[in-house]
Write a structure and sequence with these properties.
The chain is an all-alpha fold and 815 residues long. The radius of gyration is 30 Å and the shape is globular. It has 28 helices and 2 strands. The chain starts with 29 loop residues before the first helix and ends in a 41-residue tail after the last helix. Helix content is 61%, strand content 1%.
Length: 815
Amino acid sequence: MSTHAATAEYQLPQVPPGAAEGPPPTARSPRGRGATTAATLALAGGLCFVTFLAGGGLNLASMTTLEITLTLAAGAVVAGVAVLAPAGTRAYGSASVGLLLAFTALTGLSVVWSVAPDASWQDAGRMLAYSGLFCATIAVVWLVPGGWRALLGGIVLAAVAVCGYALLTKVLPNHLDANDTYARLHEPYGYWNAIGLTAAMGAIGCLWLGARRAGHALLTALAYPATGLMIVTLMLAYSRGSLAALAVGILAWMCLVPLRLRGARVLIAGALGAAPVVAWDFSRHALSSEKVALAARATAGHQLGVLLAAMLVVLALAGVAIGFFGDRRAGWVGSQSRTRTAAGVTLGALLVLAVFALGAGLAMSKRGLTGTISHELSSLTDPNAKVPNTPGRLTAVSSVRARYWKEALEIFEAHPALGVGAAGYETARLRYRTVPIDVRQAHGYVVQTLADLGIAGTALTLALLLAWMLAAGRSTHPFNRRWHARWPKRRASPRESVSRLRSPPALGWRRMRAAYTPERVGLLTMLCIVIVFGAHSFADWTWYVPGDACVALLCAGWLAGRGPLRGGNRAAPAGSPAAALPVDGADQPAAGTAAAAGLSASGDRNANGRPAAARLPPASEIDPLRVGIAVAVVAGALLTAWTEWQPQRSVDASEQAFALLKRNPVAALSAAQAGVERDPLSASALFRLAAIQHTTGQSALARATLQKAVRMQPSNPETWLTLGEYDLTSNPHAAVEELRAAVYLDPQSVSIQNVYVEALRKTGTATTAGQTASHPSGSRVAQKRPRRPLASSTRRAPGKPPAARTSTPSKPKSA
């Protein structure tokens, strides 16, 4: 596609035609295109591997495999860059790396005061893997800054594959998900909001793919069916949080990227193609209702598959037609400008009319405008709200998240400084919950961090966010402004030295006019993807879902490590290849940067516009100090991977102990002890050891083991319950005291209340209080409030590991 024929949406007025045209050398070589294609496929395959292996991130075995893989791969990449990076490479993003590692260190140190140190240590393993991926991405961008195309292309391709599989589970339920009874899409994560977030981030990538001026025309046309696929996936997941996050991302993209009309046509075409499919799905009971027979779901799913195929074909043809008749059609610049103006005015008018229509609809409702808004706000903050898993939830405002947030804030108020330890919310909330519902996360990064790590973790998070924003703004300049130092002059006598002629510098926020090169447009798209993830994480726990979190970490790491962009032609159309070329030799790469080592300002071209490759130093020029750093990095990665493996090794040893119990009790006992040694923070390992000790006739030793678990985790009701159940037959009076502590820590647990009443009956002290305890309501167990079994320092106590991380996670509950 020639630059002259492209629609000059962001062209400055009165620019000579030749200035807007890029010379022929800007075309990439076949070798460069092949490398980009291979990197794109490899990255998409890696993201799919992460998604399908880890799922929702709640299974210990799969998460352990993923954490070890990411840690070792990141160590190898960082070590390789440490050796091969050109001399003088600026370490952009170092502040972000340091703060992320500090936050990870705080996560690991929280085992000291955590209510669930085993869960905190497992969470530290996840954070170590995330930190490794972030560091490796920054290291790669130092070495190969021109790989941004492969990164964005891999994200879009992976999103298409994941969303396509999610839709296939609904099209072919008898082959892929026969036992599923939910109407909402949730595979391959097992959580509908996670697949919705994948579709939202993929849609932002599709905007870049369909709006770009550089690249193969066929790939640009494929952005239209991909956008339709993302929208259908998002709507069929019934994810309101993902819709809101996508709206925020689209608004940011339209404000930051000067390809608005090109992006709008991709979005509008995709929405128009997806609307009939979504409407048809919502109108079918077999597809929009729960607990429908498999035969009915399969029949309706096959029909949905036909509609999806037709939508993809139509949108693909529309993309080709728009590319042929729109981008390749030459015309006068003035005529194009008038067309753009008319289209922009039309879109703005439509948005204004939509806002007025929404306001009129609210005003005509039975509660009126203000009454409806007040009612919806009260529903949003109602902790007892109920929302069904039907398409109607897309228009509902109420959410059960208010309950989870309230519990998290109560935990924070009780432990404001350091929280209850990483991943301690699940255990700590049992004391504050009012409904017997099991929840592992607080459904919000901010409230989760407040509850888990208190003010210390929140302060580190804010510092990390600020450092990353400064690093990302260095390359993207989203507001077309930058900080600069002003040196005001003052009067001086002739005798004053020259060094005193200037006062200390003052920082200023100066407007700048940087060229919108293809790379800058791509980096701004990455920024919008991170914004989508951040907005969604505010109201959900997808930070714990590796398939989504890794996409955000890749984009965030690339932005932090890229550094300032140099060169470019501001007179050329935004996003065109000509915009990446410097004008009259201006803005050449400075020495001591990655560009000076053979990489251009635009990321992968020299100043003359031809492809450039990074120059790797020969073996004779490699600094021994760098080799030592690389060896230290590899050793650290191996040690980290070994640490991440220990919880799973503990579970494997315990399972092996139960398998050996019947035929070799001695070996079974040895295996159970090995499980405790491998993960000494695990209460579950102590429970298994006590069970085997009791089976082998070591009752006293078994009780001592359970008492050790209680001493280690006094804030965990499970440890008190297990010890109380063990003493129920031999020492009911002791069991009453132990179960009373469990009831205090988890007053809403019906099972604990039942065991407590049984203990009261065995001791002959069953009263009305005991009958009250057996009632499944949230009332107190006894008239007299039991003494809290925790001292002021009980936050040191560990808690049970998340049950779902030691087994296959159950189906998600409505949130």
